[in-house]
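ok so heres the complex, two chains, lmk if somethin looks off
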Amino acid sequence: MSVAAVTHGHAREPEQVGPAPKRIVTGYGFWIFLLSDMVMFACFFATYAVLVGQTAGGPRGADLFNLRIVAFETACLLASSFTCGLASIAADARSRLWFQAAMGATCVLGLAFLFLELREFAELAARDAGPTRSAFLSAFFTLVGCHGLHVSAGILWLLTMMAQVVAKGFRADIRRRILCFALFWHALDIIWVAVFTVVYLMGSGV
Amino acid sequence: MSDMQLTHGVADVAPGDEKEGRIGQRVIGYAVGLGLAILLTGTSFFIAGTDLVWQPSIPVALVVLAIAQMGIHLVFFLHITTSRDNTNNVMALAFGFLIVIQVIGGSLWIMANLNHNMMPMDRIMQMQR
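and the predicted structre for the whole thing:
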């Protein structure tokens, strides 16, 4: 072994044995939070599954759900996950223009999803199928509404990140926040997969 | 020699982070994920509304398709892989999965048992009169 190789090895050692880099610690911590969020959604899913038959003489899911709208909502979220991935790549490549464009597209798609969902909720409420109608509808509005709240919070976070990149650029802390936001947005998409399968597709078939 | 051992397998990767790759390759990765997700979603929506398959198999098929799609999202969008630098992320995910299964499975099991063993509601109402 040459002298250069030895000093090189020593220079590396503190990095290897010390605490993990901040990006890993932050990302891992946020990953744990997301998993706890999934556990919370699991509780809402369990509640919904238990109460889905308790319609108190009111409408069932098959009478209420419009699968065409659900398909559009799903398309919006799937496409927004893709554009969010593009934003992550742009952030790694330090390209402000592409980052803002991809985040803007994600924002528009997220808002389209929220618009469709709120319109659906308003329609249900107008047809006397609001959350107070039956245990089934209470569980439905809790579960789907909680996902909608997460999407709303995600859009606020997204706009904050766009502004922070304008103001501060791709600093290390800003890039950690972008990493966490991307994790959050993709996790919301995973939860929506469970929602449209369990609530809408299985609900409209029975 | 020891330097090689140190750099191999010790470093972790943050959840959601990809290994270094060219931009084009990474975009293709997301595009493949999107394509597979659209395929699985389309199949789900098709199966839910069709008469072509045996009706009792539909809920099972929907659940299988949903789980497959979650896997696609985890691999292509969240970059959770089986490589060694991802072990911590996978362990946390496995624990979350365990709790989710227990909460949903346990609730359904207990509530089905309760419903099965409980007197019908109208008889309870009669007894209270």
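quick notes: Chain A touches chain B through 55 residues (CB under 8 Å). thats all i got rn
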